[in-house]
Amino acid sequence: MIIATTAQLEGRRIVKYLGLVGAEAIVGGVNLFRNYEEDLRAVREHALEELTQQARERGANAVIGVRLDYEVIPHRPGNVLLVSAYGTAVVCE
Fold this sequence. Notes:
The chain is an alpha+beta fold. The protein has one helix and four strands.
């Protein structure tokens, strides 16, 4: 599965657009000063895995125009980290 932030894939022709796919991942208890980078990486990977799964279920072999949004929601005893991933599922040659 190709995941790209661009609208085109160099050297490949897009033959079918299958629509928008999206996924969210969340983790609680994030300490912004201690393990933020590890948590961010894990949540981002989880969101991209879900995005990939949705695209596969539609018959895609790539997702283009991928965007990632990050949000830290203040909460006690630790913050909540939310990552949203979305893009367009496509079939390319």
